[in-house]
Design a protein that fits this description.
Length: 260
């Protein structure tokens, strides 16, 4: 998810989210880092008490993109109701085709609109994965999304840590987060933070170093259909990521609770 920002042509280009999903949907599906994050989030949701046998669970995915996380959540929690909010019309269209049993809504969480009446205080669990790094005002999104969340809704957030690569800047990353910076952001938005830490050491960090070393060439590598070399690298990291730690690394994660 991101916001069109008219400050500069370059910034407007990197926030063109319809074009983003048109260009990078295939690469995103194959991206081992995306799969690592989704597995991590599903595990953390289970740790909060969400399981296949919980019929009243309602999971909100903010910045739901092309629906990959919602697809995995539907398989992991078949009794849960699932809702994705996404700024991009292209992302919503892709997600609806991928997960027809879930609901997807095109919505800008940086506007101060209230949710529809039947979705106010709706979510018992919420996910915000790889969204906040794209925003100039991440606290505004976190404040606005509370209207969709029930009291004591558990929120799981992932954001990138470590250095910013040329590809990250190309797709609109404003900043990366250390765990304490993410904790502070969530607390200022009115959440009670249960944990904030890194994950992914050592192989996620190695993957990120490869991305950084590849530089701007990666933009060409993954646009539309990924190159053979890119696909081979992704498959290799998929295997290595099975051995990542979930307590250290350049993937920053947090669990927070809506207290009011």
């Amino acid at each position: 998810m991101g916001r069109m920002n008219a400050a500069t042509p370059a910034m407007a280009q990197r926030d063109a989210w319809d074009r983003h999903w048109d260009d990078y949907a295939s690469a995103a599906e194959r991206n081992p880092a995306q799969r690592f994050r989704r597995k991590l989030i599903l595990s953390m949701l289970r740790d909060t008490g969400l399981g296949a046998g919980v019929p009243s669970a309602r999971v909100l995915d903010m910045g739901s993109g092309q629906g990959d996380f919602v697809s995995d959540a539907a398989a992991a929690f078949p009794n849960a109701k699932l809702l994705g909010l996404e700024l991009s019309a292209s992302g919503v269209a892709l997600a609806k085709r991928k997960v027809p049993g879930a609901a997807f809504v095109q919505w800008d969480l940086l506007t101060d609109r209230q949710p529809p009446d039947d979705q106010c205080g709706w979510a018992t669990h919420a996910v915000c994965s790889e969204v906040l790094e794209h925003l100039d005002e991440p606290g505004r999104l976190l404040t606005n999304v509370k209207a969709w969340m029930a009291t004591r809704c558990r929120l799981i957030v992932t954001v990138p840590g470590g250095p910013i690569s040329p590809f990250d800047r190309h797709i609109g990353h404003r900043r990366h987060y250390h765990p304490e910076a993410l904790r502070t952001l969530l607390e200022r938005a009115g959440f009670r933070v249960e944990s904030a830490h890194g994950a992914g050491f050592p192989f996620f960090n190695l993957y990120r170093r490869v991305v950084i070393a590849r530089g701007s060439k990666l933009i060409r590598d993954v646009a539309n259909e990924p190159s053979l070399a890119a696909r081979m690298a992704m498959r290799g990291f998929d295997e290595l990521f099975r051995w990542n730690l979930t307590t250290r690394g350049w993937q920053t994660v947090a669990v927070a609770v809506k207290s009011m």
